[in-house]
């Protein structure tokens, strides 16, 4: 049985066309935000699951994720639904950025984004910051992940420039992974610079 | 275990995770919409004897063993509310409904903001906080729990186990790549409709029998359905009641309310509203905030509107509705939010977060004095709030 399940898993993953490439040095996110990578990260591309952010990981998607958004326009959601909406029905709401949002509203976007699968999000610290050279907000939070009950810690940064959102978030299991990896994420985020 | 190819995850999909009150109610409604079939009715008012543990080498025994392992995992889950009083309250209600089966029923209250309850064949019952937030009284909770106990008493999970063998490969596939990501997209978790229409009919009738035998007003079962149908229509459209959201092959369900009322008859009964509110009061605001964080604002507004229609001075519901308007930020939402939050802070039992939200609204409309006043009130009550630094920055900016 395990072999059958493994075969199905491999088949589906192959169909998804997920690619993972190592990233080092200067990297451009959505051609609008440059970051300098001091440690090697793995960039994950999901061919059939195009999200408006870059996903990087150190240990694998299930363990840690650094998400980077650059120049997200007003009216666009932070995540894209991978499920189609049946005819005659309305798609569920997604956390959607709007130009002119206040810092507390940006915080709410991340709360909703990490709660959407039934996970529970607790905000631990919210403070002003400078991200990518712009005044913004930094938040620290905890996530109780619904799918497996794993308790995660997270940190996120967000700022608006010319009506577009620039943001990053890093989430990993509270025990071991987050304490070990968060400084690597912070070191990437600190180098963020908006292009153009 | 004789069932070929049965895995824990696939079994959980019918046995544990997806009966749920709502799916049950949907399925039952569709069945009830059909002419009454006497063969489906419970043959007497007597409940079956308590079940002994089935032999491990039987399919049912294997299912029990898997549910036992799942329950061990559930007990360790951080989602389980460690509130003895609340758990005991729900446990006592389940016991009253289950009668002699009480010693076999073990209730676990799970903190997840979706409408869901289910009962596994080994007696493990999950009640999610989204259900506790949505039902209005003890009778409505009894209607859902009674329905789940009905499935348990008639051992529908085992029947489904035997029936589903030919669909095993599909179930395994869905078990691996299931709808976990879709959970938060429905205020009502419209699951995989684990039971057949006949099972739902029987569970509904048995559930009604159990709640009325325990002295509750059976008509409240219809009210649960009506309330939930309203939420389903937000994303499901006006036809939400005519089709199941997950399985297009299920027949229409729009007559459910009338069918449940017919089942209930005119027998009066208890609502248990005060008892229910008292038992859940400690957690109610947290559950409302969980609901707001789902970001499904239209569904949440229906819920909070319903709460406020019953009690206009419900400070927690008023705050939560004002918060939804503020976060949705649509046309007219600012004024509605301002009205709700102003009203909230006038009430003695106003949540402290209402002052913060009010301050943010005043700041948005450049009323520096009112914003500062609201922020200072918030910080005076919660000086160590997670966002205290940000709020202090706001105050500094306003007073410059």
In short:
The complex is a heterodimer of chains A (196) and B (400). With 196 residues, chain A is an alpha+beta fold.
Task: Please characterize this protein's 3D structure.
The complex is a heterodimer of chains A (196) and B (400). Chain A is an alpha+beta fold. In chain A, 21% of the residues lie in helices and 42% in strands. The longest helix of chain A is centred in the N-terminal third of the chain and has 15 residues, at 2-16. Residues 10-15 of chain A have low confidence and may be disordered. By secondary structure, chain B is mostly helical. Chain B has two domains: 8-264, no CATH class; 283-399, Serine Threonine Protein Phosphatase 5, Tetratricopeptide repeat, CATH 1.25.40.10. Chain B is 59% helix and 3% strand. In chain B, helix 1 packs across helix 3 and helix 6 crosses helix 10. Chain B is elongated and about 75 Å long. The interface between A and B is large, with 45 and 47 residues.
Search tags:
heterodimer, A: 196 residues, alpha+beta, Protein Transport Mog1p, Chain A, 9-stranded antiparallel β-sheet, 9 strands, B: 400 residues, mainly alpha, Serine Threonine Protein Phosphatase 5, Tetratricopeptide repeat, 2 domains, 3-stranded mixed β-sheet, 59% helix, elongated, disordered N terminus
Instruction: Give the C-level CATH assignment of chain A.
Output: Alpha Beta
Largest sheet of chain B: 3 strands, mixed
Number of strands of chain A: 9
Elements of chain A, N to C (H/E) = HEEEEHEEEEHE
Total of helices of chain A? 3
Order of helices and strands of chain B: HHHHEEEHHHHHHHHHHHHHH
Counted by DSSP, the helix tally of chain B is 18
Distance between the termini of chain B: 74 Å
- Helix content range of the residues of chain A, please? 10-25%
Strand content of chain A: 35-45%
Average pLDDT value of chain B? 80
CATH superfamily of chain A: Mog1/PsbP, alpha/beta/alpha sandwich
The chain-level mean pLDDT of chain A equals 90
Structural class of chain B: mainly alpha
């Amino acid at each position: 049985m395990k072999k059958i399940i493994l075969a199905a898993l491999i088949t589906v993953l192959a169909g998804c066309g997920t690619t993972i490439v190592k990233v080092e040095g200067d990297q451009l996110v959505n051609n609008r935000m440059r970051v300098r990578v001091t440690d090697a990260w793995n960039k994950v591309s999901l061919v059939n699951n195009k999200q408006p952010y870059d996903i990087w990981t150190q240990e694998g998607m299930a363990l840690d994720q650094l998400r980077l958004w650059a120049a997200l326009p007003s009216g666009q959601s932070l995540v894209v639904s991978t499920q189609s909406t049946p005819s005659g029905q309305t798609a569920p709401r997604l956390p959607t950025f709007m130009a002119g949002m206040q810092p507390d509203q940006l915080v709410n976007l991340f709360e909703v984004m990490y709660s959407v699968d039934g996970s529970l999000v607790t905000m631990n610290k919210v403070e002003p910051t400078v991200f990518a050279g712009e005044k913004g907000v930094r938040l620290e939070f905890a996530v109780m992940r619904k799918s497996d009950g794993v308790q995660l810690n997270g940190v996120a940064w967000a700022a608006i420039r010319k009506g577009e959102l620039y943001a990053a978030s890093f989430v990993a299991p509270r025990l071991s992974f987050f304490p070990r990896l968060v400084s690597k994420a912070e070191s990437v985020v600190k180098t963020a610079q908006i292009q153009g | 275990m004789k069932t070929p190819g049965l895995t824990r995850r696939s079994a959980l999909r019918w046995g544990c995770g997806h009966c749920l009150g709502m799916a049950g109610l949907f399925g039952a409604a569709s069945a009830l919409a059909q002419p009454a079939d006497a063969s489906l009715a419970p043959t007497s008012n007597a409940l079956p004897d308590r079940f002994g543990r089935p032999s491990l080498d039987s399919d049912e025994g294997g299912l029990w063993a898997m549910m036992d392992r799942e329950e061990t995992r559930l007990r360790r889950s951080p989602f389980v509310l460690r509130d003895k009083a609340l758990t005991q309250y729900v446990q006592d209600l389940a016991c009253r409904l289950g009668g002699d089966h009480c010693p076999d029923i073990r209730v676990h209250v799970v903190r997840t903001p979706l409408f869901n309850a289910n009962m596994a064949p080994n007696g493990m019952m999950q009640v999610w906080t989204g259900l506790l937030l949505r039902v209005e009284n003890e009778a409505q909770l009894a209607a859902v729990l009674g329905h789940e106990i009905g499935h348990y008493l008639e051992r529908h999970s085992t029947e489904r186990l035997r029936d589903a063998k030919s669909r095993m490969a599909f179930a395994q596939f869905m078990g691996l790549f299931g709808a976990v990501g879709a959970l938060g997209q429905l205020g009502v978790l419209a699951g995989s409709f684990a039971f057949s229409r006949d099972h739902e009919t029987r569970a509904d009738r048995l559930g009604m029998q159990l709640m009325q035998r325990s002295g509750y007003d059976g008509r409240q079962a219809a009210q649960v359905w009506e309330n939930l149908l309203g939420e389903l229509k937000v994303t499901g459209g006006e036809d939400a009641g005519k089709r199941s959201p997950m399985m297009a092959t299920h027949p229409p369900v729009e007559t459910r309310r009338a069918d449940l009322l017919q089942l209930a008859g005119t027998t009066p009964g208890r609502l248990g509203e005060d008892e229910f509110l008292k038992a859940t009061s400690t957690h109610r605001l947290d559950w409302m905030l969980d609901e707001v964080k789902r970001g499904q604002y239209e569904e949440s507004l229906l819920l909070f509107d319903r709460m406020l229609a019953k009690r206009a001075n419900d400070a927690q519901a008023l705050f939560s509705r004002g918060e939804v308007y503020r976060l949705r930020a649509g046309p007219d939402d600012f004024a509605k939010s301002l009205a709700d939050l102003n009203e909230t802070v006038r009430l003695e039992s106003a949540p402290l977060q209402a002052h913060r939200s009010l301050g943010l609204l005043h700041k948005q409309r450049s009323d520096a004095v009112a914003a500062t006043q609201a922020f200072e009130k918030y910080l005076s009550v919660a000086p160590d709030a997670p966002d205290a630094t940000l709020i202090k920055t706001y105050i500094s900016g306003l007073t410059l």
